[in-house]
């Protein structure tokens, strides 16, 4: 990181429309650095010049530092402006910031990744890393829930992963169309039957806060320790370095102390309203 408060100019090399409201930007690092090392689970502050800046988790492969990838949903002024960008346009980037998924801690264990909606994007780097070192882990299970079949992210990649014999994927939707023949219901319903050994499992959860709360509760019922469950929290981050206080969550700051936390650390606060 050259200067945590000064955006670097990155050039967009590719734009991928994932769903009707979600897109992926691939960018090339600036001339100041030809690579962009990061850890799975970290985020950047992306700045659209003249519009504003927002925190977005990195969704690319940590093994490919020659490019930077972000996937986001169009939900506000900055993301709307970002959606209009094309290859050749530029963005300001500050980062990487934050804590990472426990990919090394999970070695020799079964790994369960529980994603809700856009939450699959921050988990994708962890899955890349695990699959790149597949022989170091036990069973790998991805449980993914979306609103509808049309909202499924990274569809082609999911199909490729599903074709492997060393990874188990279960996808569920809240609302099924006429052509959907898979699971229907919230993603937490998949946890009781998921194939993993609770005594030797590390779980990683990312999605809406209410989904993470119920997913953690189901994993605790299965016998996982709260110290073996990790969640990625989302708050209104502004400075990304713990100065402004916008992202305070109980006694911690999400930008500085997170966004990835052991569930045991945030468990006293995640069930309280207005925190």
Provide a concise account of the structure shown:
This protein is of the alpha/beta class. Helix content is 20%, strand content 30%.
What this model shows, in words?
The chain is of the alpha/beta class. The protein has 2 domains: 8-97, Elongation Factor Tu (Ef-tu), domain 3 (Beta Barrel), CATH 2.40.30.10; 110-232, Rossmann fold. Helices cover 20% and strands 30% of the residues. It is built from 6 helices and 15 strands. It has helices spanning 77-83, 120-132, 155-162, 209-222, 254-257, 263-270; strands at 8-17, 22-28, 43-48, 52-57, 68-73, 90-97, 110-116, 140-146, 168-173, 183-184, 201-206, 229-232, 248-249, 252-253, 260-262. A 7-stranded mixed β-sheet has the order 10-9-8-7-11-12-15, with helices on both faces. A hairpin with a 3-residue loop joins strand 3 (43-48) and strand 4. The longest helix is centred in the C-terminal third of the chain and has 14 residues, at 209-222. It is globular, with a radius of gyration of 18 Å.
């Amino acid at each position: 990181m050259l200067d945590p408060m000064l955006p670097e100019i990155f050039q967009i090399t590719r734009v991928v429309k994932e769903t009707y409201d979600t897109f992926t930007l691939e960018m090339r690092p600036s001339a100041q650095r030809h690579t962009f090392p990061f850890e799975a689970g970290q985020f950047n502050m992306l700045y659209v010049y003249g519009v504003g800046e927002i925190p977005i988790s990195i969704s690319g492969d940590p093994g490919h530092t020659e490019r930077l990838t972000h996937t986001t949903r169009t939900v506000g002024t900055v993301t709307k402006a970002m959606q209009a960008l094309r290859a050749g346009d530029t963005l300001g980037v500050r980062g990487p910031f934050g804590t990472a998924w426990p990919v090394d801690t999970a070695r020799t264990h079964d790994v369960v990744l529980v994603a809700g909606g856009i939450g699959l994007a921050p988990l994708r780097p962890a899955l890349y890393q695990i699959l790149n070192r597949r022989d170091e882990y036990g069973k790998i299970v991805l449980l993914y829930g979306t609103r509808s079949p049309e909202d499924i992210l990274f569809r082609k990649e999911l199909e490729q992963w599903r074709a492997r014999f060393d990874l188990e994927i279960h996808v569920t939707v809240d609302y099924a169309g006429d052509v959907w023949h898979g699971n229907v219901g919230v993603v937490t319903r998949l946890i009781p039957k998921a194939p993993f050994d609770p005594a030797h499992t590390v779980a990683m959860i990312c999605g809406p806060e209410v989904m993470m709360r119920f997913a953690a509760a189901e994993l605790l019922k299965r016998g996982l320790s709260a110290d073996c469950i990790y969640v990625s929290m989302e708050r209104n981050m502004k400075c990304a370095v713990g100065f402004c206080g916008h992202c305070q969550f109980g006694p911690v700051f999400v930008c500085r102390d997170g966004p990835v936390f052991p569930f045991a650390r945030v468990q006293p606060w995640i069930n309280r309203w207005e925190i």
